[in-house]
Amino acid sequence: MLSGIGPKRHLEEFGVKPLVNLPVGQNLQDHVGTYLGPFFINEPLTFAKDRDITAESYVEYGGQGTGPLSYTGFTATGLIASLYAKGRGEATWPDLQISLFPTTVDKSFSADLAHTHALNPETLKKYYSHAIGKHSFHVWVNVARPAGRGEIRLASRNPANPLVINPKYLEDPWDLDVKAGVDGLKKALRLIEGSTTFQNIGGRFTSEILPGCESTKFRSDEYFECYLRHFTVSAYNPVGTCAMGLKDSLFAVVDSKLRVLGVTGLRVVDASIMPAIVSGGTAAPTIAIAEKAADMILSHWSHHVPQELDDILNAEVTSLAQGGQQQNHIFNSIADSGTAQSENVAKLEKPINSFLLKGSDLSPLTTTKITTMSTLSASSTSNNVMKYMSPFSVTIKTSSPTPIPKIKVSTSTTTKAPFSFLNFVTSTLATTSATTTTPAPKTMATMPTSKPVMLFNMDVNSPTHMSFPIVSSTTRKPTQYLKKKPLQK
Description:
single chain; alpha+beta; Glucose Oxidase, domain 3; 3 domains; two-stranded parallel ribbon; globular
């Protein structure tokens, strides 16, 4: 936002010049829930810090990675659908996550919990005083698909100042999050008090009323709503503030390739691009987003070409198709630029181009010569085009286990002339035509009607294709090359 990308009016409030008007900071979502408990049991089956953290536990964890110090806080979890999700026909799309938090309430429990979640320590101290030293645990009830939407806003133009983050927990106009959360609390209560497993260890809910909810009937829907509103904590899964979506949609900031709308050369790759939060934890989905983004970025630079070189390439193909014999300096520059130093020649020992098969009548082209960078003149020092070539550009992709053959162009002449891409193509065509009985055509009008030979196969979805150092750009579709008049046999 401080760079000028964000809500126009909000940026203008702080004197930031708006460059692109996008809803950056809107659509903030987070998993929100509460700790239901304490639940008491008759046996010492839960984690107690004062009892379990000993010198022996450090030795066990250091030597074997087991024991009390390997405890993560949560030991079981499940995703279920609330009554309201089922009523919407979403029984198979959970909107609640219930997790077991088997930690006994000790002397520092309330202070630790208050510090972790920014809760009122005095309220928690009062609520948990009766449970200290007893075998107990909690159940974490999380609203997995929140309907509420928060926002992030600037506080000033100083990037060092904290942002204004308003998650707007439980503030959706339909109270869907509160209703789902209350249903989740009641489901968790029934799980502990109504299952044989927990009853066998004496599982029971506390009789203590949470401070602030004394005016409601204990264990009623009103009590659990009050409990939820007073004891709401974040699961630390914020997403959505640079949401992916269609241009001009309500919260869209990036497109399906994570490119910021209206901005060139900028992507967002993190959890903020999620249009809607996932039901479970966000760590694995965020890693998946990053992996997918890496693939898209590599693909982009494998098929990218600056616009001016893209135009020259098209013009050259058209000229050759019309029978032109002129040599364009760009192709010589591409060839020569890799030969200024011998080590560069070795690095670029890959095919530049090949004719691609387009039917059985072109079978003689299976032996078409393919030039390689090693045949280029090492005396040239031109380097005005290679700066545009990405390290992923010169590649061959084929679905066939047999690679495209690489046959070096003959260099038997005593005087080694600079490599000319057009001369190579012309000589190859002449060699290919000589193997047939059809006379070489002199004009486009007299050319035979056999299937055309495309100089470049820009259909990236074809089973076999080859990418030239200059290949199709992302701004000009590959099909544009196919609209050019093809080079014919």
